[in-house]
């Protein structure tokens, strides 16, 4: 009881004191009024964000510039008259720069739009970089028309692929055999399988265990290119390799 | 009673000059004694004057005419020659007006149709226009629920009766079905339709890829090849759709890729291409339930698209890439006695005729850059190895499939600008487009 009354007393006294001080301050005329004041220069303020739109988690740089201001705040925080800082807003934000000076008050705003990050579907996390190493080391191989024979270029690519796969013994790979649009749907299914099998055989001969390799033929059902010319057909006569996650 | 003693079926008269001279080939369908029968098919008379009867009668008359015209057995007498009065019953027909010129018909089909109380009643007759004493060959009555589908069905049945009587005792095809693949929904699914393209129905809803549908000869199931588990561990498996149950029923999965099922004509065995043993696609045969798989081929290179000799089930024709470009081969059903049937170009998609004598197939005969011609449908007499070219349009024509009467072929062509299903008589005439919606491929004609 006693202690509480003391506390109220103390707060009351402090409040009174503050009133007195502020009252006093108002009454003291500023020094500058002693001489006729020059026409105050106008306050200017600019604020910009670069970039103005980011994905969540990324950052943007806010840059500002003011003139003739002695009190500059950016979103309520006092800052230098000009400068820059980075910001990582989690949602779209309008930044507000307020510059106050003898010549008045100037405001500038900059809006940063924040979008959701593009989804990266990685249900089971794979160490970053695997996809890159795989894509660089295990490249599509291409075939001649109606042929499942490996060219010498394809042989080289497969030997290189086997080295990469041997360095990553936990990787499993799907070999997808494909054909161009010409010829029969049914015959092309088996031709695509021969192409996938040809790659599998070379990989296993180079030390890759067969149970790490899935085989599938898509025949001419999944073309990567749909124009009717040799350039496009050549793109479709290929084995594609997929790292299984 | 008309009874043709001659064997009436598809006959091949291939007249081939030398290999260098241009071949003069022809094949005949229908009867082989002179001109085809001149048949008049009068529009059926509406026995009740109401809108429903009129609408059903229109469907019926169109369907009956098309069936008779498509049959390959008749020379249809043009309607413009018919007497003005439409006979609806035997008492109303003046035979000599039909039997004499200008109609000069040998036979007249006529009758009446009426819809009452939700039922459609049809009476139909076939009269011999040249035999005034005893003209009736056929008199039939049908009653079904009054729907346009049933009007078409009754027309098909009546047409098949006429074709059976006048076409040498070979059942007509008006009630048969064609199974095919369509991508009209965005993924390739199995569909069925009537032989004339009407009543198209989606059977599977797998949203994957289905290919190579083959209906069982007893019309109970459709075997096809489907891409299963397409995300994690994709493989091609033989899948089985029950037409009785309207759903996929179990069939064993095998290792490797499994493609192009084919039924023996007694529905007891299947042949298909599988890499289950070796990683190399070979022809296997199994029971109808997939048990006791037997490997029939063992040669490096693609082996695919088997088809049984439906007359004997003792032989299988198929496509092999063992010598380079795909060619048609024949072997005994146990894998022995392998013979190469084609030896040039790119030959695929064999279909064995119901009488066991002919193979239809798709052939890029002159293969190579700048070579003339397209991929066309041919038929070959197996005994003589003489062949006839049936399509000549320099586009891609593939997947011929014989009708059960041996007088027709259904096939796939892109001549209209997209892959569609077409039908023709087995002599290459009467080519007509059956599908138009989306892309439609790999037709397979039911056995009955």
3D architecture notes:
- The complex is a heterodimer of chains A (245) and B (448).
- By secondary structure, chain A is of the alpha+beta class.
- Chain A has two domains: 44-115, Immunoglobulin-like; 130-244, 60s Ribosomal Protein L30, Chain: A.
- In chain A, 32% of the residues lie in helices and 30% in strands.
- In chain A, helix 3 (152-167) packs across helix 4.
- The radius of gyration of chain A is 36 Å and the shape is elongated.
- By secondary structure, chain B is mainly β.
- Chain B has two domains: 37-166, Rossmann fold; 177-445, TolB, C-terminal domain (Neuraminidase, 6 Propeller), CATH 2.120.10.30.
- Chain B is 10% helix and 40% strand.
- Chain B contains three helices and 32 strands.
- Chain B has helices at 51-70, 95-99, 148-166; strands at residues 11-15, 24-28, 37-41, 45-46, 74-76, 107-116, 119-128, 136-145, 177-182, 189-194, 201-202, 210-215, 221-228, 235-242, 247-249, 258-263, 269-274, 282-287, 294-295, 303-308, 315-320, 327-332, 339-340, 346-352, 358-364, 376-381, 387-389, 397-402, 408-413, 420-425, 432-433, 440-445.
- In chain B, a hairpin with a 6-residue loop joins strand 30 (420-425) and strand 31.
- The radius of gyration of chain B is 23 Å and the shape is globular.
- Mean pLDDT of chain B is 91; it is low at 1-33.
- Classes of the chains: A alpha+beta (245), B mainly beta (448).
**Uncertain segments of chain A of ≥5 residues (pLDDT<50)?**
19-30
CATH fold annotation of the largest domain in chain B: Neuraminidase
Low-pLDDT parts of chain B are: 1-33
Helix tally of chain A?
5
Rg of Cα set of chain A = 36 Å
CATH homology superfamily of the largest domain in chain A: OmpA-like domain
| Main sheet attributes: strand count, strand direction, barrel closure of chain B | 6 strands, mixed
Largest interface: A-B, 20 and 37 residues
Question: Which strand order does the major sheet of chain A show?
Answer: 2-8-7-4-5
Secondary-structure element order of chain A, as H and E? HEEEEEEEEHEHEHEHE
Quaternary assembly? heterodimer
């Amino acid at each position: 009881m006693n202690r509480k009354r003391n506390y109220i007393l103390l707060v009351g006294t402090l409040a009174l004191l503050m009133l007195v001080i502020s009252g006093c301050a108002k009454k003291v005329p500023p020094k500058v009024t002693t001489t006729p004041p020059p026409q105050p220069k106008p306050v200017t303020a600019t604020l910009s964000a670069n970039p103005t739109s980011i994905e969540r988690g990324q950052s943007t740089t806010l840059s500002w510039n003011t003139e003739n201001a002695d009190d500059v705040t950016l979103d309520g925080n006092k800052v230098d008259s000009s400068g820059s800082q980075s910001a990582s807003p989690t949602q779209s934000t309008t930044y507000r720069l307020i510059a106050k000076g003898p010549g008045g008050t100037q405001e500038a705003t900059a809006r940063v739009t924040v979008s959701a990050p593009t989804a990266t579907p990685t249900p089971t996390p794979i160490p970053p970089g695997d996809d890159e190493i795989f894509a660089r080391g295990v490249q599509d191989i291409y075939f001649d028309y109606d042929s499942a024979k490996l060219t010498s270029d394809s042989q080289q690519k497969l030997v290189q692929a086997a080295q990469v796969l041997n360095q990553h013994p936990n990787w499993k790979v799907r070999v997808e055999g494909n054909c161009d649009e010409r010829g029969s749907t049914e015959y092309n299914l088996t031709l695509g399988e021969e192409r996938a099998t040809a790659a599998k055989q070379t990989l296993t001969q180079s030390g890759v265990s067969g149970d790490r390799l899935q085989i599938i033929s898509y025949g001419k059902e999944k073309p990567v290119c749909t124009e009717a010319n040799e350039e496009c057909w050549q793109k479709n006569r290929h084995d594609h390799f997929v790292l299984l996650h | 009673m008309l009874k043709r003693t001659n064997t009436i079926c598809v006959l091949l008269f291939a007249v081939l000059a030398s290999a260098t001279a241009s071949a003069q080939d022809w094949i005949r369908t229908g009867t082989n004694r002179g001109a085809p029968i001149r048949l008049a098919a009068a529009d059926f008379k509406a026995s009740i004057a109401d809108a429903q009867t009129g609408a059903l009668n229109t469907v019926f008359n169109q369907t009956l005419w098309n069936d008779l015209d498509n049959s390959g057995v008749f020379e249809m007498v043009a309607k413009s020659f018919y007497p003005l009065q439409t006979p609806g019953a035997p008492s109303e027909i003046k035979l000599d007006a039909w039997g004499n010129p200008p109609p000069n018909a040998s036979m007249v089909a006529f009758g009446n149709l009426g819809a009452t109380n939700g039922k459609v009643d049809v009476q139909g007759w076939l009269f011999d226009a040249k035999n005034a004493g005893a003209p009736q060959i056929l008199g039939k009555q049908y009653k079904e629920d009054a729907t346009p589908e049933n009007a078409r069905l009754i027309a098909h049945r009546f047409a098949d009766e006429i074709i059976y009587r006048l076409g040498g005792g070979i059942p007509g095809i008006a009630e048969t079905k064609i199974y095919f693949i369509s991508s009209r929904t965005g993924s390739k699914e199995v569909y069925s339709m009537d032989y004339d393209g009407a009543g198209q129905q989606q059977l599977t809803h797998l949203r994957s890829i289905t290919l190579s549908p083959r209906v069982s000869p007893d019309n109970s199931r459709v075997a096809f090849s489907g891409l299963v588990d397409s995300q994690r561990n994709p493989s091609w498996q033989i899948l089985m759709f029950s037409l009785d149950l309207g759903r996929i029923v179990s069939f064993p999965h095998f290792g490797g890729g499994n493609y192009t099922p084919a039924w023996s004509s007694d529905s007891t065995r299947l042949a298909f291409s599988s890499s289950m043993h070796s990683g190399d696609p070979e022809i296997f045969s199994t029971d109808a339930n997939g048990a006791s798989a037997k490997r029939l081929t063992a040669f490096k290179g693609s082996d695919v698209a088997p088809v049984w000799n439906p007359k004997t089930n003792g032989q299988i024709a198929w496509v092999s890439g063992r010598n380079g470009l795909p060619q048609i081969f024949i072997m005994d059903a146990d894998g022995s006695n392998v013979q190469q049937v084609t030896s040039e170009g790119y030959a695929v998609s064999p279909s064995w005729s119901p009488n066991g004598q002919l193979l239809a197939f798709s052939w890029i005969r002159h293969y190579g850059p700048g070579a003339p011609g397209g991929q066309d449908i041919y038929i070959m007499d197996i005994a003589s190895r003489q062949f006839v070219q049936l399509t000549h349009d320099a586009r891609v024509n593939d997947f011929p499939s014989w009708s059960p009467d041996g007088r027709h072929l259904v096939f796939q062509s892109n001549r209209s600008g997209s892959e569609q299903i077409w039908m023709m008589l087995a002599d290459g005439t009467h080519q007509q487009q059956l599908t138009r919606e989306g892309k439609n491929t790999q037709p397979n004609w039911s056995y009955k």
